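Hi U.,

Before I forget, here's the chain from the pilot set. I'm dumping it here mostly so it's searchable later in email.
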Amino acid sequence: MNGDLPEDIVELIGLARTGSVRAAGRLLSLVESAHRAQVLSRLEPVPVRVIGLTGPPGVGKSTTVAALVTGYRARGLRVAVLAVDPSSPYSGGALLGDRIRMAAHIGDPGVLIRSVAARGHLGGLAAAVPAAIRLLGALGYDVILVETVGVGQSEIEIAAVADPAVVILNPGAGDAIQAAKAGLLEVADILVVNKADRDGAEQTARELHLETGLPILQLIAARGTGIEALIDAIEVHHRADSAARGAARARAQILSLAQSRLRAHPGLDELAAAVATGRDDAYSAAERLLAAAVDQDR
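Structure:
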């Protein structure tokens, strides 16, 4: 055990379920800490809709998220936003930028906005994200929007937790090429061309459809144009989900978290030094690392 919990978790859960954003934020802080298992043990798993949004920087991800929140709230759903920040050393609630973009929703008890620091976890999704999703589902949130920063191949991890994964691009070839190099097009379930009032939007949409065969939606997120069509496309995709696809997402999530733990194992550096100097081989070292990780958990 990780010591006594600093407060009454059952009470916090009760408050969060009745709309206390402060209580929900406190619980999220706890699942990002050494108390994670203790909090989760008090929650029953509840199915929850998780929608991932990613894409290169500057495409309007946060604007799209804000517009989606408005759309889902109009349908009477409680919405949580997890903005994954790969560099922040802390995660004490939404960052200033998130608060500015989500200004229309601040004070709405049906909306929770949270920045989550990746803290060195392999990939763009923080190790705490799966726990946060489970917590938010148990607290009665209907939809969770996970926004990732959109830098590098690590963003493909969004496919492990989200259904669907929505990739947002701008008109023109640059973003599409960057997304292809990052592997985003391979994991995208829905592709969105934002800022569709710009020149080249129609051509970009046609090229992306020919490249991927996926549905391509055009948005002007800053005006809310096309958001209802995106919500409808997300719903259609969700209805087509299968047990096999769900199992594949879970498998990817487990492997990602397991690899993250192995990378942080204290014996890894010593094993790496032995392999680098020829005193050991990588295959034997891998076996020893796995064995040491198992022993550590006992």
